[in-house]
Design brief:
The complex is a heterodimer of chains A (197) and B (229). Chain A is an all-alpha fold and 197 residues long. Chain A is built from 9 helices and no strands. In chain B, a hairpin with a 2-residue loop joins strand 1 and strand 2. The chains are: A mainly alpha (197), B mainly alpha (229). The interface between A and B is large, with 47 and 52 residues.
Chain lengths: 197, 229
């Protein structure tokens, strides 16, 4: 039950894109078509889960006072995590290319974009600071990344529907996408009245 | 466009604030733009810390550009930027604890601000130190200016104040604007106005952010004196 509460609140109530503004670049940029949005969403889920698992391990093993150095090195979190994420994404790209070409074909082009997706670093830092329990942290990471996936796929579906429509000249392009995002954000604030747990 | 002309220090500053303003023209670095613009004081804090990181990282990256092997430049940039962000985080924590509380996780996230990597890749890695510092100052102040404008609108309509001074009586405020949807709405209307007036912005040009911040191509045209030699 506790896990369900974490997932729902991470995915819907405080949605990573629409209420915490992480990963906006990808959200606005890679949402032209539903297919690409799906690819990006799945790639983000994949990378966030891997990155959170690895950074959680590094944090408890090396950076925290209870780690093997016995020093409080948590101030190095930012440097360590971003390096780990960059390496992980590179490694993942090479690994998929070599061993799972079909998955690489589906996710490959999105992987390099994800290094600078702030959702990944944001989740890794939040988990390291707020969750001391590994399963709970992972569940939170899962909820957040699923939230990202939901938001980007929804936005892409609306944008596809919008294509033939008569939009005022000055609202074509970015402005109308931002208006859609605004309406989605309003809709998602409705979830904050969900009474769970 | 500027390929033939020699880029000057002040030219770089001007370019960052006006011609290629990162928020209003290039539309990059959207995450902090939307997230911390609930009040003008937050925006100023965020803008100035980003400027400091940008100037320092641009200067250092430009200094080491000749001894940086091309193939490992990205990790080197990442370490340089992340170190400066950690320093800034310490400074804010020590001297402005209230700001540290309200910016929270967005301070470490300066690391992944597209503006910083974009400038490192497109400008600082190819130009001399003086110009890179100028570019850092210009882009940083341009970013600060952009988020101050957005935050002033949001704060005025949402909480009726600007930088803490009350302008709008309580009955006429729309709290929506300080909530997340307001950020999208204000930015949407700002870009729409730019489109209407045919001002340069990323949404009415063919080229725009392709979200690949590590290989940013937006600024390629503004580069470079040294490369063309």
């Amino acid at each position: 039950m506790e896990y369900i509460v974490i997932i729902v609140s991470a995915a819907l109530i405080s949605n990573v894109v629409l209420s915490r503004f992480l990963g906006i670049c990808a959200f606005l940029g890679v949402s032209n078509k539903v297919d690409t949005a799906k690819g990006m969403g799945v790639a983000v889920i994949f990378v966030i889960l891997m990155a959170t698992a690895v950074t959680f391990g590094i944090n408890t093993m090396f950076l925290e006072k209870s780690g093997i150095f016995g020093l409080d090195l948590t101030y190095l979190q930012t440097i360590a995590f971003i390096l780990v994420i960059a390496c992980l994404v590179q490694f993942l790209e090479m690994f998929l290319k070599k061993f799972i070409p079909s998955l690489y074909k589906a996710l490959g082009i999105y992987l390099p974009l994800i290094t600078t997706n702030c959702a990944v670093l944001g989740v890794a830092l939040t988990v390291a600071q707020d969750y001391s329990n590994f399963p709970k942290g992972m569940i939170y990471a899962l909820g957040t990344s699923v939230g990202f996936c939901i938001a980007i796929v929804l936005l892409a579906s609306i944008r596809e529907k919008l294509e033939g429509n008569d939009i005022p000249e000055s609202f074509k392009g970015k402005p109308i996408v931002l208006i859609i995002a605004c309406l989605m954000a309003i809709a998602f604030t409705g979830f904050s009245n969900l009474n769970i747990g | 466009m500027e390929n033939e002309k020699k880029i000057s220090f002040f030219g770089c500053i001007f370019n960052g604030i006006f011609t290629e303003n990162p928020i209003l023209v290039l539309m990059i670095g959207m995450c902090p733009t939307l997230a911390v613009t609930t009040s003008v004081s937050n925006a100023i804090g965020m803008g100035l810390s980003t400027t400091a990181v940008l100037v320092a990282s641009n200067a250092l990256i430009s200094l080491v550009r000749k001894i940086t092997p091309d193939r490992v430049r990205i990790p080197i940039y990442i370490v340089i930027v992340a170190s400066f962000v950690t320093l800034i985080e310490f400074l804010i924590k020590a001297y402005f604890p209230a700001l540290y509380e309200s910016l929270g996780i967005y301070i470490p996230l300066i690391v992944v601000n597209c503006i910083i990597f974009g400038r490192a890749e497109a400008f600082a890695g190819k130009n001399n130190v003086i110009n890179s510092i100028g570019d850092g100052i210009g882009m940083g102040l341009g970013f600060t200016l952009g988020i101050i404008i957005i935050s002033a609108i949001r704060e005025l309509i949402g909480s009726g104040t600007v930088y803490g001074y009350t302008f709008v009586p309580e009955d006429f405020r729309a709290a929506l604007f300080v909530l997340p949807p307001g950020a999208f709405l204000v930015l949407a209307f700002l870009t729409a106005i730019q489109n209407k007036l045919r001002l340069p912005s990323a949404s009415n040009k063919k080229e725009g952010c392709d979200n690949d911040c590590l290989h940013c191509t937006i600024h390629k045209k503004a580069v470079t004196v040294e490369e063309s030699k």
